[in-house]
């Protein structure tokens, strides 16, 4: 079961992964493991509440971008969230004055087995109007790809 929802200021995606919740949780919350499937070099980094985690994106065409998040919540095997600047790809732009969107990962046992992963990115209404629609459009497609990445990685790891 994969679902997609988009409404105003939020993008919602969900996927059932044929893997135990503990494995999926580790792949999402261990920074180095996360970077491997997400496409960021996060070697030596950790995700911790209140901490900023950064590393260069490793996806061809996007290597000039810095993965840069501030972790808000880490509730073991349940909820993980961070704030970031969505689609912050122009090296000439200082995004630091913009409000960040919130990305929340929620894990649950899936009916019939496996792990239900829900990802919600909200707060696009706070992104400056001049880049809001593009950021929303690009991240919408990006979350489709990233959920497929985590599914493939978790099911073959």
TrEMBL record:
It holds the Pfam family AHSA1. InterPro entries: ASHA1/2-like_C (IPR013538), START-like_dom_sf (IPR023393). It comes from the Bacteria. Residues 19-154 form the Activator of Hsp90 ATPase homologue 1/2-like C-terminal domain. Belongs to the AHA1 family. This is SRPBCC family protein. It comes from Ramlibacter pallidus. The lineage of its organism: Bacteria, Pseudomonadati, Pseudomonadota, Betaproteobacteria, Burkholderiales.
């Amino acid at each position: 079961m994969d679902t997609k929802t988009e409404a105003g200021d939020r993008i919602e995606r969900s996927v059932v992964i044929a893997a135990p919740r503990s494995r999926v949780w580790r792949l999402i919350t261990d920074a180095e493991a996360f970077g491997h499937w997400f496409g960021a070099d996060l070697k030596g980094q950790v995700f911790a509440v209140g901490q900023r985690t950064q590393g260069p994106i490793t996806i061809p065409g996007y290597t000039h971008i810095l993965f840069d998040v501030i972790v808000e919540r880490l509730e073991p095997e349940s909820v993980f969230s961070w704030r970031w600047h969505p689609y912050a790809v122009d090296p000439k732009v200082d995004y630091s004055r913009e409000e960040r969107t919130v990305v929340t990962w929620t894990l649950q046992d899936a009916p019939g087995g496996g792990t239900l992963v829900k990802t919600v990115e909200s707060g696009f209404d706070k992104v400056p109007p001049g880049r809001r629609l593009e950021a929303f459009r690009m991240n919408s497609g990006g979350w489709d790809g990233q959920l497929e990445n985590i599914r493939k990685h978790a099911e073959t790891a």
